[in-house]
Write a structure and sequence with these properties.
Elements lengths: L10 H14 L5 H14 L5 H14 L5 H14 L4 H14 L2 H14 L2 H17 L3 H23 L1
């Protein structure tokens, strides 16, 4: 890469190098890995920026030297830029579920319900209720079912108009 003075447009190269810097290199260099994102987005095609940024944010969550708060910040930027992209929300939600902070997960579910499309929101309510049930939170499941009923009533009243 440095011998040719050119940078590869392959996103897997950049992600692999960032992963190496975060996890494999001894001592790890997460600061260098974080600065790599900016250079990577300059090299890859614009159509792949969202996916590459999403992978870098996920690396912050998954890496032992990563900072989940930095990953949250990157994902917040992604969901504010592309609020209707369900795949970004799904990855963000899965990573938050893995971290174990229940309040963040509930907040994400609530936000997903507000910005999602009709067909997708029904699935989000089901996933949310299942998640609450796994936690043994009966009141949480009841709350989700109540929110779903309220949402359905609002949708039906909008369709009647």
């Amino acid at each position: 890469m440095t011998r040719n003075k050119s940078f590869t447009p392959d996103p897997t190269f950049w992600l692999g190098y960032a992963s190496f810097l975060m996890s494999t290199l001894n001592p790890p260099s997460p600061i260098r890995a974080r600065t790599l994102l900016q250079r990577a987005t300059q090299s890859v095609p614009a159509t792949q920026h969202r996916h590459l940024t999403q992978k870098f944010a996920a690396l912050e969550f998954k890496s032992p030297n990563g900072d989940p708060e930095r990953g949250r910040t990157i994902f917040e930027g992604l969901v504010s830029t592309w609020p209707r992209k369900g795949d970004v929300w799904d990855v963000y939600l899965a990573l938050e579920m893995g971290c174990g902070n229940e309040e963040n997960v509930r907040g994400l579910f609530e936000r997903m319900v507000k910005v999602g499309k009709k067909k997708r929101v029904a699935g989000v309510f089901g996933k949310w209720a299942d998640w609450e049930g796994e936690r043994g939170n009966g009141k949480g499941v009841e709350r989700v079912r109540a929110l779903e009923g309220k949402w359905r009533e609002e949708r039906e009243s909008k369709e009647d108009e």
